[in-house]
Amino acid sequence: MSELNNLTDLGYVRRLCEKHGFVLSKQFGQNFIVNPGICPKMAEAAGLCEGWGALEVGPGIGVLTKELALRADKVVTVEIDRRLPPLLEESLAGLDNIRLVMGDVLELDLHALIAEEFAGKKVAVCANLPYYITSPILMKLLEDRLPVESITVMVQKEAADRICAAPGTREAGAISLAVRYYARPQVLFTVSPGSFTPPPKVTSAVIKLTLHDTPPVQPKSEKRMFRIIRAAFSQRRKTAVNGICSGMSLPKEAVQAAFAAAGLAPMARPEQMTLEDFCALEHAFADAGLG
User: Fold this and answer.
1) Regarding beta strands 204-211 and 183-191, do their DSSP bridges make them parallel or antiparallel, or are they unpaired?
2) Is residue 216 part of a domain?
């Protein structure tokens, strides 16, 4: 375990990769963290301590995994790259509270995994997400309604700004509204490209989503509300009415009537509308038999 604390040392990373014939994969969006201050900060932000379990996606060579294991009772880390287990076995030697699960997180039954691995424990997700697939992973974690307290992840700063955008701001979009339905989002801190090897071309950010016990609005149909939201944002330069008409193939008169019934301005743009506005609109759609 002598080199356990050297996982952010570039020389150690190179020796480990060379020893196992490992080359970073662009396919999996791999960039290893070499800034020693980042992962401890992430693990602390996740609130992990005795009595908790941590679910990680994409361990890399285990830099964040180690920090999670030093704080939580147990860490389950999901990895799709079948070349990594030998590296992780060496880099995390001496830590006996880690289980590596091979597979695609988008296809795994996470409810079953959490029930099996973390019975009786509070659970938090903490991960350095692959940037090319950030949104699908985040939405799966949220839409599956997993029994987790929070999700603390590193993503591209641009994605973080969209995910955590407040309604009424230019950055607000379908994903920011979807996230706010399930959780309270916040940007914690940014991470420079030089914190990784190889350095990405973008700045990163760590965000935390604290899950709601119950959603802040109660649509009659979640699926219909999110269909409306996606349609409204499908053509951002248009009004929400026009976007919904086009995206859902509905007559303009019917959509305008629904906006009126919901007390919404007919010329409103989607980024100006709140989650409460879209919920009211969904109720009007339900009452009118639309969507």
Assistant:
1) antiparallel
2) no
Strands (E), 89-161: 98-102, 122-128, 150-156
Instruction: Tell whether 256 and 148 lie within a shared domain.
Output: no
Containing 77, the helix (H) or strand (E) segment is strand 74-79
Q: What's the domain count of the chain? A: 2
Taken as a whole, the chain contains a residue count of 291
Are 43 and 127 spatial neighbours (Cβ–Cβ below 8 Å)? no
Which CATH number belongs to the domain containing residue 270 in this structure?
1.10.8.100
Radius of gyration of the chain from Cα atoms? 21
Tokens of 116: 């099996």
* pLDDT tens digits, 28-52: 667 889 999 999 999 999 999 999 9
In a domain, 217, yes or no: no
In angstroms, the CA 59 to CA 198 distance is 16
SS3 83: coil
- DSSP-derived secondary structure for 205-239: EEEEEEE-SS-SS--S-HHHHHHHHHHHHTTTTS-
Average pLDDT value over all residues in the chain: 94
Residue 13 structural domain: 4-211
- The answer to whether residues 41 and 174 belong to one domain is yes
